[in-house]
Write a structure and sequence with these properties.
By secondary structure, this protein is mainly β. It is built from one helix and 40 strands. It starts with about 20 loop residues before the first strand and ends in a 5-residue tail after the last helix. Strands 9, 10, 11, 12 and 13 form a five-stranded antiparallel beta sheet that branches. The protein has a four-stranded antiparallel beta sheet with strand order 1-2-3-4, with no helix packed on it.
Length: about 475
């Protein structure tokens, strides 16, 4: 939308699902990033149908293009390339509008702006950097130099919708700099805990880390988990020996699930820019092997007891939202289980492999359902207020843990849900669960969230005549 600086009624220019940066060019075109995983689009400042400018190149491990900045005289556009959802080492590229081609200018950089002194200003994990730049050749002509430390930047929030990499600073054409202090968020300091049916927690490990989504090995002896922060990897913790071992051999990895035989773990890797599924032996006997190839992000969730079928969730933002799919691990064939326009997630096989529990919002709010597997048939509503063992099915609703008694036979029978406990401070997941259940069903493996409250931004710092300081710190060769 746009509105006059003198006030008045805002004018809608076009529809967009989200907004990951926008820039108003001198050609009266507004360039913007419309989605989490999209490239750049532009629309006339008078309104109209948006035009696609760039598309993230998955073959080059590009996850998204965002934070555009129009160069003067309509020559080009600076933008940030994210290689995955939580990229803390993104890069800055420039697109030549005449040819529609782009090239990477700066590694480990984000949110670049052109400065009238002939510099580019950009952020590197909360530090404002500057580098000489030739706007005619669209090339940097020197080495980056740090100029202001500790500028607030939205990185390391552990939420792909908030990790935009945007910096809280602005530079005027008259030479002033304004910014908010704060840097980037530090890593979370979470803990692994057992929680009983009364909600009482017991610490499992003494260490703290930005860990999430713990899963017990089938024999209950080992714990796999992911870390999501400045580095994202998959780990296995042995409580008896108090040892931690990294599993994924390369790159960033998240969303870990054990195979039924306990020999491997499945996880998603960001090697191609989009999280697809891989697996790897826990003992490191061989390197990670790719299981799926998709242009959409995937989340492994639950194995059938025979180890032949993996239920996972795939995200299709443009049409069907989150859907449940099935991977046959023998022939790598992928088939849809539920792919309607509604949210469908959190799939979990029953211990006998004849049923799948899942969550859908087809009723207008998220509820738990059960359907037979592999054949189609009726479905049963489990929750009414919008893990498992053989006789009970557990589910979470915000800060509450509920249980229902189930009985399978010729049909499926379920009791009225009972609230076990309500306790804040434990991590939850979307669109798969981020907790687990002990083999006997008597306690839950959860992550206790650490206290990470960022300092509120209560002031902005204005630096007048900043251009003189910039030219002193980063001189431009004649």
């Amino acid at each position: 939308m746009k509105v006059s600086v003198e006030g008045g009624v805002p004018l809608a220019l076009c529809n967009t699902d989200a907004l990951f940066g926008a820039s108003w060019g001198t050609d009266n075109q507004i360039v913007f990033a419309p989605q989490t995983m999209s490239g750049l689009s532009r629309v006339s400042a008078d309104g109209g149908k948006p035009e696609t400018l760039t598309t993230a190149d998955r073959s080059k491990e590009e996850y998204a293009h965002r934070l555009p900045h129009c160069l003067p005289f309509g020559k080009g556009i600076l933008f940030t390339i994210m290689r995955h959802a939580w990229d803390v080492q993104s890069c800055v590229a420039v697109m030549d509008l005449a040819t529609r081609k782009w090239q990477v200018l700066l590694e480990h950089a984000a949110d670049a702006r052109y400065v009238a002194t002939g510099h580019l200003a950009f952020l590197r994990q909360g530090t404002l950097m500057a580098v000489p730049f030739d706007p005619d050749r669209l090339q940097v002509t020197g080495q980056p130099v740090p100029v202001v430390a500790n500028i607030a930047q939205t990185l390391n929030s552990v939420d792909s919708h908030w990790d935009t990499a945007a910096g809280q600073f602005g530079i005027s054409s008259s030479g002033s700099l304004v910014y908010a202090s704060g840097g980037i968020l530090p890593d979370m300091e979470n803990s692994l805990v057992w929680v009983n049916h009364e909600g009482k927690a017991e610490l499992i490990a003494s260490f703290k880390a930005p860990l999430f989504s713990p899963r017990l090995s089938p024999d209950g002896r080992l714990i796999a988990y992911e870390t999501v922060g400045m580095e994202s990897h998959v780990w296995v913790y042995d409580p008896n020996r108090a040892t931690t071992t990294r599993v994924n051999s390369e790159g960033r990895a998240t969303r870990v699930v054990w195979t039924p035989d306990g020999r491997r773990v499945v996880f998603v890797s960001w090697k191609t820019g989009v999280p697809n599924m891989y697996w790897q032996p826990v003992d490191g006997a061989s390197s990670m092997e790719r299981l799926t190839q998709s242009g959409y992000s995937q989340h492994p969730a639950s194995w059938s007891p025979d180890g032949e079928t993996l239920a996972f969730v795939e995200y299709h933002p443009e049409d069907t939202n989150y859907d449940i799919w099935l991977l046959n691990v023998r022939d790598r064939r992928v088939t849809p289980f539920l792919n309607s326009r509604y949210f469908e997630g959190y799939p979990a096989f029953s211990p006998n492999g004849r049923w799948i529990a899942y969550v859908s919002d087809e009723s207008g709010r998220r509820e738990v359902y059960v359907q037979p597997f592999p054949g189609r048939g009726g479905k049963w509503l489990v929750s009414n207020n919008g893990g498992r063992n053989g006789k009970q099915l557990f589910y979470r609703w915000e800060e509450q843990v509920w249980v229902v008694d189930v009985r399978t036979g010729p049909g499926f029978f379920v009791s009225k849900p009972r609230l076990l406990f309500e306790q804040p401070g434990y991590s939850d997941g979307n669109p798969i669960r981020a907790w687990d259940i002990s083999p006997d069903g008597r306690r839950f493996l959860m992550v206790k969230l650490g206290d990470r409250k960022p300092q509120p931004l209560t002031e902005m710092i204005l630096v007048q005549n900043w251009f003189e300081e910039l030219k002193r710190l980063v001189p431009i060769s004649k």
